[in-house]
Design brief:
The complex is a heterodimer of chains A (102) and B (627).
Chain A (H helix, E strand, L loop, with lengths): L5 H21 L3 H26 L3 H29 L15
Chain B lengths: L1 H21 L5 H28 L6 E12 L2 E10 H24 L6 H20 L3 H19 L6 H32 L4 H8 L4 H18 L8 H4 L5 H10 L4 H8 L1 H6 L1 H22 L5 H22 L2 H28 L12 H4 L1 H15 L5 H15 L3 H29 L5 H9 L6 H16 L11 H7 L10 H27 L8 H8 L4 H48 L6 H22 L1
Helix pairs in contact in B: 1-2, 1-4, 2-3, 2-4, 3-4, 3-10, 3-15, 3-21, 4-5, 5-6, 5-10, 6-8, 8-11, 8-13, 10-15, 11-14, 13-14, 13-19, 14-15, 14-18, 14-19, 15-17, 15-18, 15-21, 15-22, 17-19, 17-21, 18-19, 18-23, 19-23
The chains are: A mainly alpha (102), B mainly alpha (627).
């Protein structure tokens, strides 16, 4: 099989996932949180594709396509929410948007 | 002929269903006609079955017809089957024939009631249930019929549900009957266990080979059912109260048919009782006690229907006595003649009550002979039959029972004989007390008030059935004339061979004494009436009898009060502190826990993300570690 071993892909994916997770947990801007989420999704996609390649099966790639479709839908909604917040002059800070606390 | 039996069974059911489904779309009168005609169709079926059986060879007079298998559990099977033999065909004729007349009579009696359709549906249901009871070919169907007649009786006693007394009486009847149903069911369970079948033929074949204890227990269970259904002491207290129902109901259910089901059971299950002679004697003793007690209580009652109700208990006591000593033919014979004359008495009383706008107190009645001559004659025929005056039907059947007691030739027989004779005297007394108070003398003020604007003697639908029954009560007993011809007894003997048979001399000797006693009763009653006295003059005795020997009070103290006290205690000490409080605490505890848990929901998105990340990491570590 050509190309690097599957382990390398996993390392890259893990690093990407870590960056994304830290971004979600540490950043307060909803836009950045959304971006970080995308990074985490792409890390997952990377592992799916890497394993698909290793196994010689297309299942993982199709799954990755499905994840992208879902991610696109999610971004559409997320960005829509952020735009709506900005229009209403709601501060773009996830720590302040806590009306649902118990 | 077996088809006739099936028609007989199913026609009233069809009537009940038709009236129920049609509901308000048919007029009340139509409902009455449906009920009456289906009952007469049943009678026609019964006649066909009877004639077929009569024409059949005597060896072929026990026919079982199976529709399908109802229950099957391994080897134990119960079929929906009817048994047509001499006993059941006789009962079919009585139930559907007398039933048809009474349902017809109801059309006049109930006219104008708000819920006539419901009434007729119940009546048809009752006739069906009673026919199921007497036609069933096994004990389980018999039990089903047994329960259904109890249900119909409950519904009809409480028919006027606006009256609290009627509802209470219905409940009382139901509970008392339930006791009997339970013992009957327990007896049947023992039978299944011991014999593996409930079919009459199979059970009776094995009745002799059961152990003494077992057969005694089974017989006791059956006797318990019979005692409750037939209102014998000690389960008799419901019958007088059951008079709260409409009068035709009293005539049909609480005089002619349902209350005699116990006698039918004693005769039908005679092989079991013969294997348990002690229990059989117990039935005779209970019958003797009941006939005396009920006869005495009847002397002091003021309600015309209650007097007749006590008389019914007393007469069924005679039947129990007969079945208990093994004079099955006479037990059924008295059942049949009693159905005629007691239904007649109830229906004549119903005509009187109808005429007087629902008044039942005999103190307000009097002199009705002049106002209602035809009813007077009908009632008199019933009274003479009840008292056992010669040629009237009761004479032939009741005296035969006493003669059989005499012929059984042992100490028990002698005691029963004496009880029967005293009962004959009591019968004469209470019957003619009622007759003289209601019909003789000058019309009372109350009667005069109603004489002009009253309902007359009722519509034809009431008078014709009364007339037919008056004829039957008069000549119905002529099917047994000891020593001359006894086709009725021969007919029943083919199903239940009697254990004792009186000689012709014993028969006529007993009759002479009994008739003399009845005549004494008649004369005493007339004397007391003409001098304005009561028959019971001692106030202490009067009080005891008026309280029906304190049976109601006794049961109240024995069963009701302890149960009520126990319930109160449990409510105070268990229900309120434990059950009710615990429910409250479960509620408040849940709210408290919820409040604590809600704090975890901070609304901080980043905290949630951290929690998810931490949880996933823990899971990963655990999975890896466990591997």
């Amino acid at each position: 099989m050509d190309g690097p071993d599957v382990g390398w892909y996993l390392i890259v994916a893990a690093v990407l996932f870590g960056i994304g997770a830290l971004g979600v947990m540490l950043r307060r801007s909803p836009l950045i949180v959304l971006l970080s989420l995308e990074i985490m999704l792409n890390a997952a996609n990377l592992t799916l594709v890497a394993f698909a390649r290793q196994q010689g099966s297309l299942d993982g790639q199709i799954f990755a396509l499905a994840v992208m479709a879902v991610a696109a839908a999610e971004v559409a909604i997320g960005l829509g929410l952020i735009v709506a917040m900005a229009r209403r002059h709601v501060p773009l800070d996830v720590d302040q948007a806590r009306a649902l606390r118990g | 002929m077996i088809a006739g039996a099936w028609v007989c069974l199913l026609a009233p059911l069809a009537g009940a269903i038709a009236i129920t489904i049609a509901g308000g779309r048919i007029s009340r009168r139509t409902a009455g006609w449906i009920s009456t005609l289906t009952t007469f169709v049943a009678f026609a079926g019964a006649v066909v079955a009877f004639v077929g059986l009569w024409a059949a060879d005597p060896s072929d007079r026990e026919q079982v017809s199976t529709a399908y298998t109802w229950l099957a559990a391994g080897d134990f099977q119960v079929q929906v089957q009817i048994l047509l033999d001499t006993l059941s065909s006789t009962m079919m004729l009585v139930v559907s024939g007398v039933g048809g007349l009474i349902v017809w009579y109801s059309m006049g009696y109930m006219a104008g009631d708000d819920e006539e359709r419901r009434y007729f549906a119940y009546m048809s249901l009752f006739v069906f249930a009673m026919l199921l009871l007497v036609q069933s070919g096994n004990f389980l169907l018999l039990l089903a019929g047994w329960g259904l007649v109890g249900l119909a009786s409950y519904l009809l006693i409480g028919f006027w549900h606006q009256r609290p007394e009627a509802v209470a009486a219905a409940k009382k009847a139901f509970v008392m009957n339930a006791i009997g149903d339970a013992t009957l069911a327990l007896g049947l369970v023992l039978l299944i266990w011991q014999t593996g079948t409930l079919e009459f033929a199979g059970v009776f074949q094995q009745a002799g080979s059961l152990s003494t204890t077992m057969v005694n227990l089974v017989a006791l269970g059956l006797l318990g059912g019979a005692v409750a259904k037939s209102a014998q002491i000690p389960l008799h207290t419901w019958l007088p109260d059951a008079m709260e129902g409409p009068t035709p109901v009293s005539a049909l259910i609480h005089a002619a048919t349902m209350v005699t089901a116990g006698v039918y059971l004693l005769v039908r299950a005679s092989p079991i009782f013969e294997a348990a002679p002690d229990v059989q004697h117990l039935a005779a003793i209970l019958g003797a006690i009941t006939l005396l007690v009920a006869g005495a209580v009847a002397l002091v009652q003021w309600d015309i229907k209650r007097v007749i109700a006590y008389s019914t208990m007393s007469q069924i006591g005679y039947m129990f006595l007969a079945a208990g000593i093994g004079a099955y033919g006479y037990a059924i014979f008295h059942l049949v003649t009693h159905a005629f004359f007691k239904a007649l008495l109830f229906m004549s009383a119903g005509v009187v009550i109808h005429h007087l706008d629902g008044e039942q107190d005999i103190r307000k009645m009097g002199g009705l002979r002049k106002v209602m001559p035809r009813t007077h004659i009908a009632f008199l025929a019933g009274a003479l039959a009840l008292a056992g005056i010669p040629i009237f039907s009761g004479f032939w059947s009741k005296d035969g029972i006493m003669a059989a007691a005499f012929a059984s030739n042992d100490a028990l027989g002698a005691v029963l004989y004496a009880a029967g004779l005293v009962g004959a005297l009591l019968t004469g007394l209470y019957t003619f007390r009622l007759y003289f108070t209601v019909f003789r003398g000058e019309p009372s003020e109350f009667v005069q008030e109603h004489a002009h604007e009253g309902n007359g003697e009722g519509p034809r639908s009431m008078l014709v059935p009364v007339g037919v029954l008056a004829v039957l009560a008069t000549i119905g007993g002529l099917v047994v004339i000891p020593g001359v011809w006894e086709p009725f007894l021969d007919w029943i003997d083919q199903t239940a061979e009697p254990l004792v048979t009186a000689t012709v001399t014993e028969d006529y000797g007993t009759s002479a004494i009994a008739v003399a006693l009845a005549l004494i009763g008649f004369l005493v009653a007339r004397r007391a009436f003409s001098s304005g006295r009561q028959l019971v003059t001692n106030p202490a005795v009067w009080r005891v009898l008026e309280h029906k020997l304190y049976f109601d009070e006794l049961y109240d103290a024995l069963f009701y009060r302890p149960a009520a006290a126990l319930s109160q205690t449990l409510r105070r000490n268990v229900e309120e502190p434990v059950v009710a409080r615990s429910l409250d605490e479960i509620g408040s505890g849940t709210i408290q826990v919820g409040g604590e848990v809600a704090r975890a929901q901070s609304g901080l998105l980043r905290t949630y993300a951290l929690a998810v990340a931490l949880a996933v990491s823990v899971l990963v570590i655990v999975f890896v570690a466990v591997r």
